[in-house]
Amino acid sequence: MGEYTQYIIIGVIFLVVVFVIAYIKASIDEKKGVDSAEKQKIQEIVKRAVPGWEEYTAAYGTRTEWSSARGGSAVETRYWYYAVAFKPGELYLIPLSFTGKDISSGEPIHLSAEDFGMAEAKPGMLSLYDKDRKELMALVVIASNTRVDKYHPVNIQQPEAAKAFGEFAQDFMQQVNGANGITDLKMAKYMAKMKK
Fold first, then answer.
1. Full-prediction pTM beyond 0.70?
2. The CA-based dihedral angle spanning residues 32, 60, 108, 98, taken in that order and rounded to the nearest 10 degrees
């Protein structure tokens, strides 16, 4: 066996060990997230901030924005975190901030279908546009959130809430687009780009 072959074997063993460790960590984080302190904190924040909270589904949501720096060589990524409460036609976003493992919340933002000019629902995401059809935000609510780094600060497993959000997003999109006379979303997005 040559020296080159030994390096390949050592490299493969190293990669297998790293994969196994990452898989075990992800599995542990997922189990912790089923009824984690962070998930309970989101529920408490919604209870405090949303009038008639019993009628809403509570979830953890995120928003990410990428923008190019001057010259287009670097990309800046910004993250926002929310306690989300939703029911047909209505949405509350409660901004979250993290200091270590402490979660604090800001003032709730109440939104309804009438506030938007266009909406687009995709699996786990609701993109919202203003009356001029400029994108305001894409809100993401997914089933599995695991603590990976400072940009992914929570262990929250929320499959039921994510499924309910998907249904809410489809309904919300139909309400917004119907109220604004949008029957062909692709065409509306194309026309909005042409205006720029």
1. yes
2. 50
